[in-house]
Design a protein that fits this description.
heterodimer, A: alpha+beta, two-stranded antiparallel ribbon, B: mainly alpha, Cytochrome Bc1 Complex, Chain C, binds protoporphyrin IX containing FE
Chain lengths: ~55, ~250
């Protein structure tokens, strides 16, 4: 319990950042944004599975 | 917003007596009945252009929101000490955090999709506006969530935010360093607000139907066939106004 509380109170390091001029962003946040753009592009390009035929109901 | 028909039920054989003075309860009943007319409740079929992954993100966002709410309720049951020290508490805390990550990622991809399709076309402006409100409401909910972690992260964020809000001149209205206040904002006030906005957003989507991609034509008023089946007495003209599509 004490060790867990101590662990919970340890600051988590912010991690590496990248900088372009005025813009500073953590690598983690940059990766998440890039991943979102990739998912967006894939959503536009990948074919959607064909719908179930239900004409014969 | 166009007025909905008062009732979708076929006229009773004995006509309902109309009171000389319309009561608010009767008016409310008619409003609730017309809110999402039968036939527009859940989609039975969709136009062909909806068969695209980009139309999945609204529902993915909604599904993440459900996981957020359920895991948040479990966190409230256990309380602060529980989510810091127990293994199960850690797990539920992580489920809550990661469903929030998924919620925001899917919400923003949904927003991009709707933006580049100009999905506010066809009388869907209010759908866009409620979406934007849901976005800003969610930002506030996520922010207060970070404030109530009860760790050094939360302490750092709250002191920075306090300075920022004071600099913006709005710091007198709420105290981001008051844990009790922020806890209540996060677990009751803001979820209620976001939940209500999302309900209105979804109701609007059901009423207006899904926006067609630019250049595509809407095949027929969404839900029109089902609505016609539910209320055969209704004229096609009313159907068209209700769904915001010109006849
Ligand atoms: C809590 C967040 C949100 C949820 C749960 C949500 C959910 C949905 C769902 C399920 C749809 C049906 C169509 C589809 O999925 O593509 C929809 C449509 C729509 N959303 Fe959202 N949404 C959210 C946030 C937003 C935001 C931030 C915007 C933009 C500012 C937005 C704009 C729209 C518009 C314009 C439509 C109607 C057009 C259409 O149906 O294609 N939404 N939303």
């Amino acid at each position: 319990m004490i060790t867990q509380l101590l662990a919970a109170s340890q600051p988590v390091p912010a991690g590496p950042v990248v900088q372009w001029g005025w813009l500073t962003i953590t690598v983690a946040n940059l990766l998440v944004i890039l991943l979102m753009v990739v998912v967006f592009v894939l959503a536009l390009l990948l074919p959607f599975p064909a719908p179930r035929e239900d004409e014969d109901r | 917003m166009s007025r909905a028909p008062t009732s979708l039920r076929p006229e009773p054989t004995e006509p309902r007596r109309r009171p000389a003075h319309d009561t608010w309860t009767a008016a409310l009943t008619r409003w609730v009945e017309g809110l999402v007319p039968r036939g527009q409740w859940l989609p039975e079929r969709q136009p062909v252009y909806v068969a695209s992954w980009i139309y999945v993100f609204g529902v993915a966002c909604l599904a993440s929101l459900v996981v957020i709410i359920v895991s948040g309720l479990v966190l409230s049951l256990g309380g602060v000490a529980w989510w810091h020290v127990s293994t199960l508490g850690h797990f539920v805390n992580s489920v809550h955090l990661w469903s929030v990550e998924l919620f925001f990622a899917t919400m923003v991809i949904h927003l991009w999709g709707k933006f580049f399709m100009a999905s506010w076309r066809g009388d869907r402006g209010l759908t866009w506006a409620t979406g934007a409100l849901a976005f800003f409401g969610s930002l506030g909910t996520a922010f207060t969530g970070y404030l109530i972690q009860t760790n050094f992260d939360a302490q750092w964020i709250s002191t920075q935010a306090k300075d920022g809000l004071n600099a913006a001149g709005i710091g007198a209205w709420f105290n981001v360093m008051d844990l009790g206040q922020m806890m209540l904002w996060h677990v009751s006030l803001l979820p209620l607000v976001v939940g209500a906005i999302v309900v209105v957003h979804i109701v609007l989507v059901r009423r207006r139907g899904v926006a067609p991609p630019i250049g595509a034509t809407e095949p027929s008023p969404p839900g029109a066939a089902a609505a016609a089946r539910a209320a055969p007495t209704e004229s096609p003209a009313t159907l068209a106004t209700r769904t915001g599509v010109e006849p």
